[in-house]
Structures are given as C-alpha cells and as structure tokens.
Amino acid sequence: DFQMTQFPSSLSASLGDRITITCRASQDIRNYAAWFQQKPGKAPQLLMYSAATLHSGVPSRFSGNGSGTEFSLTIDSLRPEDVAVYYCQNYYSPPYNFGQGTRLEI
Amino acid sequence: QVQMVQSGAEVMKPGASVKVSCMAAASSFSSQYLHWVRQAPGRGLEWMGLINPDTGYTTYSQAFHDRIAVTRDTSTNTIYMILTGLKSDDTAVYYCARSGGSGSGWYPGHIWGQGTLVTVSS
Q: Residues B29-58: pLDDT tens digits?
C-alpha cells in the first residue's frame, strides 16, 4: 500500500500568514496527489489535483507543489474561512489512502 | 453541475449489513469512477473502494477484507455500498464521491455526496 504521512497534525497561524502543509508518500506516486479541505459537518472539497493543479473555483491563494514522494500545500494570506482540516490523498495506485489530516486554526 | 444524493441515516445492530445508495442527479453518471470514503466520529478520511459504472469493475481497500461490495444500477444512475458484519467501529459518515477529468488525467473527489451516517449499536 501507498501510505501518506502528513504533517503537522495541527497548525495555529494568524490572519494574513502564509502556511505550508507537507505530505510524504511511502513510495513514488509521481504527481498523483490531491488535496482536500473539510469544514466541520461538511463533505470534503477538492482543492488541488495532479499535485499542483488548482481545482475550478478554488482561490489562487492556494497552491500545490511536489512529485514523487514529497508534496506540499501552501495557503497565502490566511483568511478566517480557511479554518478547516486539510487532507492529502494518493491516487496513483489503490488503495487511494489519505493522509491523517492537518487541523488549521487561526 | 452533477449532484450526488445519498440515502438517509441508518441505525444498525452489530453483525447486520447496511446498504447505502448514491444517485447521480444528471446524465453524467457514466465515464467516471465513483468512490466510497468514510469518516468515523472525530477521525480522518478512509478510502473504501470504487466502481467503474460503465463496466462494473470494482476495487476495494483490503482493510475491509471481504465485508464490502459496491454495485451499480445504470437504469437509475445509482451506486450502492454494502457493508456486512457490522461492528461498532463501523459507526461513521459514509460518502460517495465522483472523480473528474478523463482517461489517465482523472482525479478523485470532484463532487461529493452529502454523507450518510451509519450508527452501529446494540
């Protein structure tokens, strides 16, 4: 299985800050990584796929990077609505495991 | 935009089986993988399996051994997730999610259902 290790598990930042979340795959998954945002009581929403492609409607404050085994999600100019849990996901080979999640507080 | 509409909450006894449905409310039911993902209370996301609605091909996480089956009904644009041998640990919100893109450029989680809470309790 392709395990996804995400860090940090939680993060506290201030409005206007820039933050980065990292995800490490246990094996090479090329660029088949996606990032999701989940707010309390809601279904996850896709932010990024192919490691660095912004999903339609997602603000450009979000950006992704990486390939192989190291991936990152960066949020610039933090806003109150960014409070959420963020997950990475491998979709190179099933099982399409998620990282453990990063809880972002502002 | 395609909507994914799931069936309502269920309360099940340990050892029972549950069947959760997910209907695509538009003609684009086909041509995309449809996934099942669950989330136990206060926990992270867990990928369970997927189905190709055109061919019926399925693949599952080994974490569910032989307890899971995903089927489809193309006449109603609906997929089903059946989980057997329920345990208290199976208490979770179950989501269906439709992929996006096409061919080798597909990606997961393009559109999600609203979630179905399954509670397993004696």
A: 778 899 999 999 999 999 999 999 989 999
